[in-house]
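Allow me, if you will, to draw on your knowledge of protein folds for a short while. A protein sequence and the structure tokens that stand for its backbone fold form the material at issue. I would ask you to consider whether the tokens describe a fold that such a sequence might reasonably adopt. Thank you for your consideration; the sequence and its tokens are set out here:
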Amino acid sequence: MKQLKKISLMAAGFLLALMSVITRPVPVQADGINIPVRQTLTVQNAGTQSYSTTFSYKLTAGNIGNPMPEGSVNGTYSFNLTGNNASLTVSIPTTGLTVGQTFSYQLKEAPATPQAGYTYDSKIYAVEVSVVTNATTHQQEVVTNVRLNGTKVSEALFANTYDGSLVPTPTPSPTPTATPTATPTPSPTPVIVDPPVRKVIVGTPSQNAVFHFTMTGQPGAPMPAGANGNVKTASVTGAGEVEFGQFEIDEAGTYVYTLAEVDDGQSGYAYDGTVYTLTFVIEEDDDGDLYVAQRTVVDQAGNSMNTAVFSNVYQASSTPAPGTVNNEPNKNVPNTGDSGADTLGSVSNKSSKTRYEARFGNVYQPSSTPASGTVNRNPKKAVPNTGDSGENTFSRLGAGLLGLTMISALLLQKKTRRSE
């Protein structure tokens, strides 16, 4: 008994240790969010002129509250690169991140004051960060993708040039004071947005179907390429991400869209009728640059989420094969196209008055007219008129029985005499 108790205590301790390991939160890998940046500088016609090789850049958060590098101000991180082919890795801490979180950023060159002779790179890179669980190690990982115009790249590369021939040569003679002219205010750099939509299928269809979705913008809202007016249609085969496409917003303001699935009526699918409201709040920072101050996805019930998820339920057809017995008392047997003449038997469900027939084919059916004098077993079916009355019929039956009785008696008497 003591040994059994000891084994029980050891098993309980092992289970508690195992549960503590399973329930312990898995930390994000320490490498964090890393964004590689590189610049090149091409110099032409410099002569004896001096020129700077330092250029400025900005990383802007897509949403307020995104994790940012140290030294960021109001969701913007500014840094410099000096020299040709200079590189830098922008690192963002991952403390407190959990699986399922996604973050977006914009990276671009931002010269404080453009100088004569310089041509600055105007590319804008979109940085997407996701926190996922590695299927092999079961560790939380941070996946960072840098994209240019929707194409994934290995680094953010900015190519700048300096041409000394574009720098005006100073003249020794005094220059008359020119009348100042109004300098047009430069337009802010557009911000790039991407509607987050995903398709989910519950069930196991034999083959993937194509599903369609619509994105409808309020009047005046910018739309992705390929939109028809303020409506853009997108499709996906089976489950996966629904790509309406990235697009630009070049003015501060609030832009509202609705996201819905088109019910194509495909067999076996129950469509998701949820209608989501997608809102982008675009603001301008102190430098005149636009950024996404807020992005929300809300369903009809007011529930907020990161992604508009449409979930369809697939269920295969349950129609019984022709000729099968219906065990559902309130469900009609399907029409097989056979006539009643092929029916050999029937099965009745006592819980209902539905009649189910089993058909086999090639059935011999004798004439339904009964022979003269036969007894009708179906009280609802009339016996054909043979010309005999019911009285004559029963008289004949009685005479036949009497004759058989008399013959039996005579045979018995004859057998008795022989024995004597």
